[in-house]
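Quick one:
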Amino acid sequence: MAPHTTPPTGWRHTTPWLALAVLLLVLDQISKQWILANYRLGDSTPVFDFFNVVRVHNSGAAFSFLADSGGWQRWFFTGIGVCAALFIVWLLRAHAGQRLFAFALANILGGAVGNVVDRLQHGYVVDFLDFHLGGWHFPAFNIADSAITVGAAGLILDEFLRWRQSRRAPH
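Output:
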């Protein structure tokens, strides 16, 4: 029988996950800076029949939630992002050995910080990925949003796998 081992925790084991979050943050910010340097607000370049590169400013949250709320939402969403980032770093440190869970958290962290940087720097989030079909456009998004989505899907998958494993375990 194998001895019980404590899962890796602490800063040493957290470093790879923080590095992933920083990589996503850097890719997000480079892509947004490129859009800001090469596109004016509203400019669009068709790439495929279903995809354009655009420049959109989102002063709200996901799907432009609260975008027209007079400006207070900038600081509200910035505060939520900062609090979420601190909580995620704490979770990463405590659960660094849970690979899927930590991968998901690192994606959410990188994306959340990427959008917080935008809010602090510009007062809005720069979005530029525009998928569409038959005249219907999905709300434009960016690499940070994609990372958050991948992270959320990872958390759901992690929980599903944990639930499935607990149902198989003898009681």
